[in-house]
Amino acid sequence: MRSAALVLVVVVVVVIAAGHNDVVDARAAYATRSVADLADLRALPGTTIRFLLNVAGDGLGRDVQVPVIVVRGAQQGPRVCLSAAMHGDEVTGVGVLFRLVERVEPGHLHGTLIIMPVLNPDGFRLRRRGNAYGKDLNRAFASPPVQASLYAQRLLEALSRLGVTHHVDLHTASKGYTNAFYARVDMRSPASTRVAFDLAPDIVVNNTGPANSFRRAATAMGIAAVTVEMGGPDRVHARLVPVAGRAVDRLLTSMGMLSPGNAPNGTAAQTYTCGSSAWVYSRHGGLVRVFPGVNTRVRQGQILAEVRDLFGAVVDRHHAEHDAVVIGKVTELPCPEACRMIHLGRLL
Predict the structure, then answer these.
(1) Is residue 136 within a helix (H) or strand (E), and if so which, with residue range?
(2) What are phi and psi of 205, to 5 degrees?
(3) Rounded to whole angstroms, what are the CA distances from 142 to 165, 187, 210, 213, 218?
(4) Is the pLDDT confidence value at 5 over 50?
(5) Distance separating alpha carbons of residues 170 and 178, to the nearest angstrom
(6) Where is 281: in which H helix or E strand?
(7) What is the pTM of this model?
(8) Burial grade of 286 (CB within 10 A; 0-12, 13-18, 19 or more)
């Protein structure tokens, strides 16, 4: 009798352990789809599906595959795409999106989330900004899409076939820089502007975006599109992952996709609104020190940065020409002449 009870306990423990095992086989094969297949995508209400999207062929004839997670809510609603790692070394957004997938319950969702955590898999694998050929993918888009590079054209086509209504693209600063948690948006688009402010970041900057950027092309397609920046490259910023996660929750709640009971506690202490922004460039090369931190107000005449030569002598100082907020700054000390030092937003 005692041995039978022991066997029963062992069986129960094994069953409980198996029920809580959330580790999947890394060798498991995910389904693959072409962009043309997306029009026939079938996801039952209240379910999540995962697949690899064949975007384009590389120089060896292999498919470059973008992971896609579609979370279809039990109720109808907006179709929101959230993406990250367009630049392969900008990885904090990947952590944000993984956490989002873990905590969103499809049965409680109104609408559909289309999550693309790694838009540039080759750059992600190589831990660099560009793709396998060194191309900046966020300068490969165009409107109309047929004028974009093939890779960019197919990503835009994927958004169209999936019926995306809103798009939030997560980035960080490039190497040697760090950014505040801020959003860039073309304020001529009321729908895009609402997305930016519903996120409640520290700063919102009016910016149309480069001519061949993902956001500008998506906006031209009628999608409410926003770029979100945070921190620097090459690592997942543990402090910023929950900050950005709460911002995404605020957005989804304001759109009616999540119930108010799922809304995060608290918002940004203050959101600065900037009508424009510009970089301050060094006039001399040397060792640069930028004094104010990101998301800091500066006043006209306040010292921003100083440059020292290799003997430690100060060769130049920069002062604020107007009241502003610090959006981003250089973090590496050696800085050549005409180096971007500090990114200032002109407050409205």
Answers:
(1) none
(2) -115, 130
(3) 18, 19, 10, 7, 9
(4) no
(5) 14
(6) strand 272-281
(7) 0.90
(8) buried
Give percent helix, percent strand, percent coil of the chain, each to the nearest 5: 30, 35, 40
On whether the CB atoms of residues 273 and 204 are closer than 8 A, the answer is yes
Euclidean distance between CA atoms 141 and 149, whole angstroms? 6
Cβ-contact 277, 298 below 8 angstroms:
no
CA distance 167 to 265: 24
Extract the tokens encoding 332: 């590496």
Distance set, CA 299 to CA 25, 296, 318 (Å): 55, 10, 13
Q: With 60 as the cut, is the pLDDT of residue 136 above it?
A: yes
Six token digits for residue 257: 């996709």
pLDDT for 27 beyond 90:
no
Q: How many CB atoms lie within 10 A of CB 40?
A: 8
Q: Residue type at 339?
A: C
Give the Cα separation of 93 and 87 in Å (integer).
Answer: 11
Q: Are 113 and 162 in contact (CB under 8 A)?
A: no
Least confident range of 57-71, 110-124, 187-201, 219-233: 57-71
In angstroms, the CA 189 to CA 294 distance is 27
* Under 8 Å between Cβ of 159 and 223: yes
| Cα–Cα distance measured from residue 40 to residue 59, given in angstroms and rounded to the nearest whole number | 29
278-347, which class in CATH? mainly beta
In CATH, what number does 32-262 get? 3.40.630.10
Contact call for residues 159 and 115 (beta carbons, < 8 A): no
Domain boundaries in the chain? 32-262, 278-347
The amino acid at 82 = L
